[in-house]
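Why run this: before we spend reagent on co-expression, it is cheaper to look at a predicted model of the complex and decide which construct boundaries make sense. The entries below are exactly what would go into the expression plan.
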Amino acid sequence: MKKFVVLLLVVTFMFAGGGDIFRYQMLVDQFEASSQGKPSWDASFFMGYDANKIYLYSEGDSQEQENEIVFSHTITPFFDLQIGMEHDTKDKGATFGEITLMGLAPYFIETRTKLLFGEGGVGIDFDFEYETLFTQRLILNSRVESRIFSKDIEKAGIFQGLNDITVGFRLRYEIQREFAPYIGYSITRNFGGLKREEGQVKDRFVVGIRFWF
Amino acid sequence: MQRRDFLRSSALFSLIAVTPALAKKDIADHQPTQVLEGDEFDLHIKKTWVHFGDKPVIATTVNDMLPAPTLKWKKGDIVTIHVTNHLDEPTSLHWHGIILPYTMDGVPGVSYPGIMPGERFTYRFKVEQNGTYWYHSHSGFQEQTGLHGAIVIDDDIDADRDYVVGFHDWSDEDPDSIYRKLKLQSGYYNFQKRTVFDFAKEVQQFGFAKALQRRAMWNKMRMDDRDLADVTAYTYTYCINEHTNKNPAYFFFKPGEKVRLRLINQSAMTYFDVRIPGLKMKVVAADGVPVEPVEVDDLRIAVAESYDVLVCPTQEAYTIFAQSIDRYGYVYGILSTSPQKRAPIPKFYPYEPLSMVDMGMAMDGMKMNRMKKKMAHETKIPKTPLPMKKGIAWTMEAKGAMYRLDDPGVGLRSVQRKVLTYADLHTPNLENRFPDREIELHLTGNMERYIWAINGIPYYESKPLQFRYGERLRITFINDTMMNHPMHLHGMWSDIEIADGKILRKHTVNVQPGSKLSMRVNVDATGRWVFHCHLLYHMGGMFREVKVLS
Ligand SMILES: [Cu+2]
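The model came back. Tokens follow.
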């Protein structure tokens, strides 16, 4: 793992021709609590240049997380290709390699679509987001996430086929661009083969803050 | 900054906030910018505390003045300017629009290494021209923090009063932070984005299907028709000669006098639409060069441009009103017979989003006629191909880009008064040689990522442009972006092709979004020059070195 991180750093800075000033950003897109369940987060950090960046992603709560580290290279005006790895801590945990397409699709739909491979299987992760402006500061973020996998990986709580779909709406108020409290509603439906969660629908109301620096 | 300098500057400059009590002091004590005359000048670049916006911050000043002193030269003189750098970073001064040897041009890394901390550099050159110009730093973002001033070279335009009206966009924010924010979120400063209610209004107006269709075009291209200005009054305090609206600049006159206003846009990023309600402005010079006079009600002044206008006020007071192109902020000055007399502040012109015209698309019938002005001389000129890169710095192609010299531009198209356009201007008595060859420069960008480039290639990946000494070059711009770009070539004049073989001589050429514009250049100066967009935060990418080979 350490070697891998060092390699990413070297590659990014070797291609510092990726242009313009060095910059970084810490974005905590979701940091929220709901009546049922633990506080959870969805955050990312990047550093780099116009074309080459290193991203760290973390999503989850105190018990289970998906953490990623990727090298991100801009391949078209609106899309980055990311190569790296993801580690899921659910149950006993599992590590995957990933190839990801991240960017802005027509109609201003933001997406991160991951191809995961490892633990003897292949999977796809979708994430689509869309922002609706009610005012210049009152913004509704709508998000759809899903995971499909080729086989059961019991130790990571992954099952074959369509695992789950989460649809979330978060209405935030940007006091500043960098700081926005929000309220939201999120609903998850589990599909796949593992008995304990099959067909379960979980929904929750959330309050949280979104911030970056 | 050294402590001694700090104390000295605080004694000299009353804007300074040394203590919290002083910090609250109003800008009313503004010490007027000096006019320095002669042929030898001593300029000291320093950091000085100022209080313009909401809090005291540090400005970059010349001789502790903000804006920098106005330099008055005489044509034919050899001027000597000693510039001492008291900063702890390199600095430079560039004489914008002045024709001079390239080693005196003041662009770090091209004409000289720049002026290092503690160092003194002496500029010496012969003044070969008349008119209104300006100077500014070409190092980093220093221009944004105050390092800009006017140059006045005597000429024979006759007036009873003569004033410099220098526009600027001041920010309390560190320019590095502004740039970083634009890189992280290009719409950071835009608080006039389209909302669902705007869409609802369109549905009411056009019906659901048509409204959806109108949006689809923009949405598919991932472009925002409300992206008029990158940096706005959200962070900017607009000023005239560094007077804000809290303490506006006064320009006095006696009724019946002829007043000359030297309008200079010294902003980092802001286009201003200027008018003086109740007065016609007679434009007599553009970028320092006399033009066939033309009377207008309104004019848009691009960043780095200058216009000399004559006004004949008869009432007691007028407002010089300058609204930013995005209609989010304004600054006004007072043209008046006494400090007690003021005129009302007019309203903004209505907000106008960008249209298909600005995307370089074929436009609706109404606009068609006026835009379709054909160039008289479309004879073949040999074209020299340049490297192009359709990479990440090129998101839009203005396939139907047209010459739009008579287009007042977004926000001024529906104004029912006379708005100045390039088509109204022409520089008399200039030889207009037929060009020897042509090059085409696409102004390109990626607004989503805030990357700017020429021909899709940002400066850091570019090779210098090669001009040949003695040639007459035609440069055609195609603006493949949704923004105006004020293009500035150092060392040589830019002769814009106006219809009917007429030309307009300028140093800064505004290329409207989605449009095309051609200019001719007499390559009459050897050396290393630069050619760039004058918007401060576009300059990192939309920049080229120019080598003139003999
Ligand atoms: Cu530009």
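The interface with chain A takes residues 179-181, 183-185, 188, 191-197, 219-222, 391-395, 446, 448-449, 451, 458, 460-461, 540-541 of chain B (CB under 8 Å). Residues 1-30, 364-377 of chain B have pLDDT under 50 and may be disordered. Bring this page to Monday's planning discussion.
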